[in-house]
Structure prediction request, 171 residues.
Amino acid sequence: MPETPGVPGQASAGPRGGTGADQDAVPKPLAAVLHGRTLPGVLSWPAGRPVQHALDAALAAGWQGTVLDLEGVTDKAEFMTRAETALRLPSWFGRNWDALADCLGDLSWWPVHGGRLLVVRAWQGYAAAEPDEWRAAESVLADAVARWRDTDTGLAVLLTRDAGGPATTRR
Prediction:
């Protein structure tokens, strides 16, 4: 799949060369969202399950996926840097919660034909270091999901319970 400039990474093909994730590798709540049987939301991903399975399933369902890796993030400035990089946020991104909400409320910079899956991994350290800031992040993500819920190009957020390992994204 060719790279699309200015668009967050797309899930890459799995190690077997295909894009379809094993049915048992994807929990039912995510599978239901990806296949349009339920509305997108903020979902959790079980510990020990590779997040690549979620990205592969998203790609197979016609969604684009990207990973916001918060490993080692302990402050808001680094959160914003990681979000800006992982999501390839537009140049007008102001590196604050309101600006992130604006970017996620207007996803014209992330065009897709299906939905969008944002996998947030290793968030627990940030939540422990900055609980008030993490609550703000959760609120922004939940509001963005709600904003796109009833569209053909929904946004779902997957919070990993870590030990999900790094995922391959395609940019």
